[in-house]
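tool_call: predict_structure(chain=1)
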Amino acid sequence: MPAQGSCTVVVGCQWGDEGKGKIVDVLAEGVDIVARYQGGANAGHTVHVGDDEFILHQIPSGILHEGKRCLLGNGVVLDIPQFFEEYDALAARGVDLEGRVGVSRRAQLLLPYHRLLDQAAEESAALKIGTTGRGIGPAYEDKAGRRGVRVADLGD
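tool_result:
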C-alpha cells in the first residue's frame, strides 16, 4: 500500500476497458482520497462487495470503502442526471455518501445536445468509430473550444 504522503496514479492507455476501476477498488483500501481526473459516464466499473454488485459510471469506486473521499476533477465531463441517479442508487443501498463526494467547479457539463450530436455524427459517418452515444466526445469538443458550460456556471 502507498506510503504516507504518497500519491498512487492509475492511468489507462488502451482506450478504456483495461480494468482501471477494479484496480482502483483494490488500491482504495490504503488511501484517503480517490480522485477521477477525466472521463465521462461512458465508463463503467463493476465492483463486487461480498455478494453485492455495484456498477459505477461517474462516482469513483473508492466510495464503496468506508471513510474514503471521492472527487471528480476538472477534466471530467459531468452528466448531472446520471451522476444523481448513481448517487441516489448508492444511498438507497446504504452507502454513506455524506461529505464524501466532491465535484470540481471547473468540471465540464455534459448536456442533452451533446448526446444528440454524438448519435447523429455516428449515424451519418461512413466509417463508424463505435461511440457509446453518450455525448462524451462533443462535450470534450466544447471544453477544448472553451464554449462549454462548467459546474461553476450554474451558480452557487
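agent: The domain at 20-108 is CATH 3.40.440.10 (Adenylosuccinate Synthetase; Chain A, domain 1). Proceeding to next step.
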